[in-house]
UniProtKB/TrEMBL annotation:
This is EGF-like domain-containing protein. Keywords: Calcium, Disulfide bond, EGF-like domain, Membrane, Transmembrane, Transmembrane helix. It holds the Pfam family DUF3456. It comes from the Eukaryota. It comes from Brassicogethes aeneus (Rape pollen beetle). CDD domains: EGF_CA, FU.
Length: 536
């Protein structure tokens, strides 16, 4: 399959190179002879069928994206979008070409070109166009062209001559098409990075093992253990079982499917030899295929072409604080890739900004220095720093001490901000909208009140809101007084009615004052939603 894809890719490159050379040569010819040599212009659009050369590009784009289209959902969406753009561009190219053909035919007719050129142009136009009605209409127009006003013909020719940029539309559209196609090609190749040889072999072997597990009981499932043992014994190493395994090889593979199929074809005879002759003597399928036969892998903690042991093998590879480069493969140089915080050829020392929290003959544990330390440290905490970072001061007894920039006489923040000290730094936060300068967050931390606010009890209060609250307060008590006066007036006329109304007024006043004085119940559900949104 890979050879087939490479062969198709070489064919595509050859066709694409030929197309570019032919396209730019023809563009140059048209640019030089567009208005002078009318017959050459018609021959160019008739003979050089540029659009047909787009077919190998489209076919190649589909071929290189087959497995991506099947396996990658979002890449499929991307392919569809880009393909839609390319289809739209091709349609636009056809439309532009039709316009050029119409202009060329009219122009040739104006200059009394021979009739066979017109017939050739119309027939070729029908081959290029999806709808020959357009060309039939052109033919009807050509039959009436001799009756056109000479002034109109001159204006048409003048417009054609003054707008040569019309002929560059096709080139621009083609360039845009190939840019999108090449971008899609590059992104597809990036997605389809081949897996390493050792990993490919492991994928192939895992597929075989899964096939063996799938066919372990074969067709003889039942409850009679003795009967199953008698029947399964010949089936376990039979050609029938091997065939069933081979039929489903690599089908469940997600990554490296092409390489898996390639190995299946290449090492089919080796698999049969292992199955019938070496299955008992070499039960380790991975070791037999990947290490001994294909020689693309090494035993664990070995590297390189000769499967050299990694540093520190077998007891402590890289001091148990790193990984051996190329371990398990025929690649790599065997050097130690240390974990974060460790350094040295064998990862036996602490890196800069780390210190040895524990160390003996067999073990080394490195921990990160305190955030106040600039570079190395000797122990945990600020006392272990050998040098302090900016924003910290060194003290002989306490080590690095945080500098409180907010405590300085001159605030580092703007007048409408307040300072919040952090470890080794500070932050400037905006004051409350009621403040014109502040020392902290909230309207009770204002130095002065902003316009529209007044200071009451060391708090800046909205003046308009305060006036509104006062108005509501006075109105409420005036209403209460009015209800009481009305009850007294009714009491002079009818004692019973006045008693009922008095009870109602008292209930109303009590309920109103209770509702006003009671603090509102917080909406816990809304608070939970706000917290969840903030955390997410």
């Amino acid at each position: 399959m890979i050879k087939l894809l490479l062969r198709r890719f070489r064919v595509f490159l050859n066709e694409f190179a030929a197309f570019l050379q032919r396209f730019w040569d023809d563009i140059q010819v048209v640019g030089n002879n567009l208005l002078e040599e009318n017959e050459a212009m018609l021959d160019f659009f008739m003979a050089n069928r540029i659009h047909l050369l787009l077919i190998p590009v489209i076919v190649h784009t589909v071929i290189i994206n087959l497995d991506v289209i099947i396996e990658q959902f979002w890449t499929t969406v991307f392919v569809i979008v880009v393909s839609g753009i390319n289809v739209a561009l091709i349609v636009a190219l056809f439309q532009i070409h039709r316009e050029y053909m119409s202009m060329a035919i009219f122009h040739l007719r104006m200059n009394n070109v021979q009739e066979q050129h017109l017939v050739f142009g119309l027939s070729t136009g029908c081959q290029w166009s999806e709808n020959c009605l357009l060309w039939l209409k052109i033919k009807e127009k050509l039959q009436r062209v001799t009756n056109l006003n000479q002034l109109k013909i001159s204006q048409y020719y003048k417009t054609l001559k003054e707008n040569p940029q019309m002929y560059s539309k096709q080139a621009d559209a083609l360039v845009l098409y190939f840019l999108t196609s090449l971008f899609l090609f590059a992104s597809s190749e990036k997605i389809k990075q081949p897996v390493p040889p050792c990993k490919s072999c492991r994928v192939y072997v895992d597929s075989i093992i899964k096939g063996m597990e799938r066919t372990e009981r074969g067709k003889f499932e039942g409850g009679d253990a003795a009967w199953e043992e008698e029947k399964l014994r010949p089936y376990a190493t039979s050609e029938l079982r091997l065939t069933e395994i081979q039929e489903n090889l690599c089908q469940e593979v997600k990554e490296g499917k092409d390489q898996c199929y390639s190995l299946m074809e290449k090492y089919d005879s080796e698999l049969e030899e292992w199955w019938f002759k070496k299955q008992q003597t070499h039960p380790d399928l991975f070791g037999y295929f990947c290490i001994d036969t294909m020689q693309v892998c090494c035993p664990d903690l070995h590297f390189g072409p000769e499967c050299t042991p990694c540093p520190g093998h077998p007891a402590k590879v890289c001091n148990d604080n790193g990984k051996c480069r190329g371990a398990g493969t025929r690649k790599g140089n065997g050097t130690c890739n240390c974990h974060e915080g460790y350094t040295g050829e064998l990862c036996d020392a602490c890196d800069e900004s780390y210190f040895a929290a524990y160390q003996d003959e067999h073990k080394l544990l490195c921990s990160k220095c305190h955030v106040a330390c600039d570079g190395t440290c000797l122990k945990a905490g600020t006392k272990g720093c050998q040098k302090c970072k900016a924003g910290w001061l060194f003290d002989e007894t306490k080590g690095c001490i945080d500098v409180n920039e907010c405590a300085s006489k001159t605030s580092p923040c703007s007048p409408l901000q307040f300072c919040v000290n952090n470890e080794g730094s500070y932050r400037c936060l905006e004051c409350d909208r009621a403040c014109l300068g502040c020392t902290g967050d909230g309207p009770d931390m204002c130095l002065r009140c902003a316009s529209g606010f007044t200071m009451q009890n060391n708090m800046c209060i909205d003046s308009a809101n305060e006036r509104r609250m006062n108005y509501i307060w006075y109105t409420r008590y005036i209403t209460y007084a009015g209800l009481c006066i009305a009850t007294c007036i009714i009491f002079q006329k009818n004692t019973l009615v006045a008693g009922v109304i008095g009870m109602a007024v008292a209930t109303y006043i009590y309920a109103s004052e209770y509702m006003i004085s009671k603090p509102p119940t917080p909406d816990t559900d809304a608070l939970k939603e706000d917290l969840m949104r903030a955390l997410n």
